[in-house]
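[Discussion] Sanity-checking designs against the backbone

I'm trying to build intuition for which residues belong where. Below is a structure token string of 296 positions. I'd appreciate it if someone posts a full sequence so I can compare it with mine line by line.
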């Protein structure tokens, strides 16, 4: 458990790193990915890096000599909701960062990108039930408070209930919005709830994993603790059957999640704790934007 000084230092580090990345690399891709044509014309403004070229107002551009784009009412009303699994399995990490720390950093990147674009950001923290619900608001201070909450919050329940969190979200948010579901997806019986949520909202699932969940280290006997149940188990890392079984189970979980998201028409991004998550997020947003352009 981090003390007060360590928490404050970590929050400041995430803030500085995230806002720098947003301003330098992420903001344009975010704007392109989540700012489609709205339902009501509002105004025109000068073109900014990352704007959709399809929204250029050619008459104003020709008249002024500078590219201008049309803006729509939907752009000012976009809300992002983050549903974040904080079950105790997220505390695991074989490298520099745990799964939960990586999730917090990715959340900060996307939330600051939304704030930079004057969008609303909401947060739901869940394990075997919803433990925190922060309604969407605008502003960098709001984002900072949510980052602080994610780092400080101690999980109150054991186990994971993804379906319950999605049902709660659908009840409290009836109006369509952009939603990100972060989890290691070590759960079952959530396919129907995920499909319902993807039908109501623009849903992206971000699956967080650690290399040691699919590949054991080279060595002898090690003691493992179940993060959810607290039980201890001693295993032999040299056992080839055990190594293969772990690898196959991880492969099956990944394939099952791919199938669930494909059937629900929800986007899916896999990120490992050893990945360059900023690169992965930017590539994900580019792919979203390319698919939207191809659909026209």
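Best answer:
Here's mine. Compare freely.
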């Amino acid at each position: 458990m981090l003390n007060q000084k360590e928490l404050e230092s970590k929050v400041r580090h995430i803030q500085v790193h995230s806002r720098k990345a947003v301003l330098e690399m992420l903001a344009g891709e975010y704007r392109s990915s989540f700012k489609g044509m709205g339902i009501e014309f509002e105004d025109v403004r000068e073109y900014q890096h990352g704007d959709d070229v399809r929204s250029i107002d050619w008459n104003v551009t020709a008249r002024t000599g500078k590219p201008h784009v049309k803006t729509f009412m939907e752009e000012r009303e976009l809300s992002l909701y983050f549903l974040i699994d904080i079950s105790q399995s997220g505390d695991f990490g074989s490298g520099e960062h745990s799964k939960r720390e990586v999730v917090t950093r990715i959340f900060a990147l996307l939330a600051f990108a939304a704030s930079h674009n004057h969008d609303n950001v909401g947060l739901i923290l869940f394990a075997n039930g919803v433990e925190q619900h922060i309604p969407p608001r605008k502003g960098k201070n709001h984002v900072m408070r949510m980052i602080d909450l994610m780092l400080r919050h101690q999980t109150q329940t054991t186990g994971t209930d993804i379906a319950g969190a999605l049902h709660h979200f659908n009840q409290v948010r009836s109006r369509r919005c952009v939603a990100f579901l972060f989890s290691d997806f070590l759960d079952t019986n959530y396919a129907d709830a995920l499909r319902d949520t993807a039908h109501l909202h623009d849903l992206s699932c971000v699956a967080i994993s650690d290399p040691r969940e699919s590949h054991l280290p080279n060595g002898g006997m090690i003691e493992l603790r179940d993060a959810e149940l607290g039980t201890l188990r001693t295993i032999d890392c040299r056992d080839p059957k055990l190594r293969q079984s772990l690898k196959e189970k991880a492969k099956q979980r990944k394939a099952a999640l791919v199938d669930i998201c494909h059937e629900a028409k929800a986007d899916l991004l896999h990120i490992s704790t050893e990945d360059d998550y900023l690169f992965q997020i930017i590539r994900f947003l580019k792919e979203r934007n390319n698919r939207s352009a191809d659909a026209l």
